[in-house]
Amino acid sequence: MDNFKNFITTNIRRFAMVIALVGIAILFELLTNGSLLTPLNITNIIMQNGYIIVLAIGMTLVIITAEIDLSVGSVAAFIGAVSGVLLVTLDIPVFLAIIICLILGAVIGAWQGFWVAYVKIPAFIVTLAGMLIFRGLTLIVLQGSTLAPFPDGFRSISSAFLPDILSGGSELQLTTLIVGILLSILLIINELRLRRTNIKFGFNILSFPLFVGKLVVLTAIINAFTFTLSLYAGIPYVLIILVILVVGYAFFMDKTTFGRHIYAVGGNVNAARLSGVKTRKVKFWVFVNMGTLAALSGLIFAGRLNAATPQAGTLFELDAIAAAVIGGASLTGGVGSVIGAVVGALVMGILNNGMSLMGIGIDWQQAIKGLVLLGAVAFDIINKNK
User: Fold this and answer.
1) Which of 92, 129, 220, 302 is most buried as measured by Cβ atoms within 10 A of its Cβ?
2) How far apart are alpha carbons 139 and 312 in whole angstroms?
3) What are the structural domain ranges in the chain?
4) Nearest in space to 56 (alpha carbons), one of 337, 374, 253, 247
5) Residue 372 buriedness (CB in 10 A; 0-12 / 13-18 / 19+)
């Protein structure tokens, strides 16, 4: 029992957000008469929120360092505009255009990171200026018009699905089911390896019954999710991109020296500096990373929209910040996780989708999302005070 209580106490914020996500999903499933959790709508939620999840991952790293980036929506729009020029106007090969756009996003992140990390201008001011600069550049590049359509190879990033080579004409996507089974096996192997490592070094671990229960729940969730996807069109490519990003960044933040330095800088920048952490370098590269992910988000959004428009990216920065904060990132720095950012983004995505299915107007949607964000921050502050 004490082991269970310690586990819950240590992960209280993470569990609270997961419980909130499940509760919101169940609520809207009931209110929409079962429309929310249909295979088609679950696929739509993933594809509609993919670009926000990408931004939320990058924003979480920025917030962990106790900084903020208000320019990501404008950067995403600018990169989308550049991709339109490269692919629609100049007819450059898709792969080359994507590489150019990602490099350009990294350069933009380096530009902003330089002013924040080395000139020590507050990130709020630098990225607010960036918001205006890149929104203006978007209008200049597109000359106020829309560029469309994109090549099919580019659109497939956001709207195509992993080919099903095993179903043999069956309506059930067998490839998707097998992917779910393989992911479950990998999860179990990884959890067993981590448990053996923790035992070896004398760390606190869950009791064996709780450990088995945790594996059963996680594998059930994975296979239920992939089974649901298999009933529609299978696994969208954007989901594969998201899984790679989430696993990669979670490993980076938890298992690498640089990831721990990011937490150290956000927790106490002076103590980190005295401990030998190159704090300016850390902040600089966090903004480079944010610029790259903003570029990727812009490409995903442009591909889904099948057009580069001057209005793209509007309020993306607020959605990304909200997702990171709802997912557990603290605006004072030093606290947050990649998994939490995904949970926060899904909370916002299900809220949007559920309210749209219910026919609630955009005015009430914005008000409700604002209350959810306020509640998440209040919970964080109350939890810290306790």
Assistant:
1) 302
2) 11
3) 2-34+47-160+255-385
4) 337
5) middle
Are 185 and 348 within 8 A, CB to CB?
no
CA distance 269 to 261: 10
Q: 62: closest CA among 131, 108, 116?
A: 116
176 three-state secondary structure: helix
pLDDT in tens, the chain (386 residues): 555 555 555 555 566 778 888 888 898 899 888 888 899 999 999 999 999 999 999 999 999 999 999 999 999 999 999 999 999 999 999 999 999 999 999 999 999 999 999 999 999 999 999 999 999 999 999 988 899 899 988 998 888 898 887 766 667 888 899 999 999 999 999 989 988 988 888 877 778 888 888 899 999 999 999 999 998 888 999 999 999 999 999 999 988 999 999 999 999 999 999 999 999 999 999 999 999 999 999 999 999 999 999 999 888 998 999 899 888 888 888 888 999 899 999 988 998 899 988 888 888 888 888 887 787 777 767 766 66
* Residue 202 identity: G
